[in-house]
Amino acid sequence: MRQWILLRGLTRETAHWGGLVADLQQALPGDAVLAVDLPGNGRWHHRPSPATVQGMVQACRADLAARGLAPPYHLLAMSLGAMVAVEWARAAPDEIASGVLVNTSLRPFSPFYHRLRPHNYGALLRLVLWPRAPEAVEQQVLAMTSNLAAERAPVLAHWAAVRQQRPVSALNALRQLLAAARYRAQAMAPRPPLLLLASRDDPLVSSACSQALAAAWNLPLVMHPFAGHDLPLDDPAWVVAQVQQWATRPPLLPPGASVTAA
What we know:
Layout: E1 3-7, H1 20-27, E2 32-36, H2 53-66, E3 73-78, H3 80-91, E4 96-102, H4 112-115, H5 121-129, H6 134-145, H7 153-165, H8 170-182, E5 194-199, H9 208-217, E6 221-224, H10 231-234, H11 236-248, E7 258-260
Parallel strand pairs: 1-2, 1-3, 3-4, 4-5, 5-6, 6-7
């Protein structure tokens, strides 16, 4: 039985996966699927967020050990969570059987203005530094991360309720931003096999980041044609299908290949 561990991104928690966890479990009935929170988010929102990706890896390993879940793990991780997955695969390769990385970006492969597109700088700083009502905050997050935000009224209400119940502090958000900004991956790819998924029209993080990583590490990359940064929100069925195919047969693409999949 494979164990799938799901990791979300900056200030996001397990609830932000929506129905994808259950959908992935249904698609992989012989596997175990578990979404976990990074410190400072979700069930751990009262804890300080590590200011390094390495610290986040150690926290995830300790969380799973406390649950009695031994490696190896298969990782599905997006954005900051994907940085955690990369560092985990580097630091403890025997613990990671494979990884699917969604809309991530890494130094030194991409410049800062690709890793966070400049038109988002002001909005992101306002989110972190200026407290507002949960619905106003989540409306801004949705606008930055979804290309289908106008269709997401139920999601907005749910996310606002999540923020009300488990708020992420401004300090923890800043520490997560700092961890993401300062993390630098190694020139060589980690040993475990990795698949990249990216949104061609990601308004937050340029898809050029995934393309650069695929070229540098000779990894397969599958591009989504219309989703935003929150690919699991905009097209969860597509994500589940890609993970299912990656898990149940040889990789869709030879290393270094890239394709846009409808």
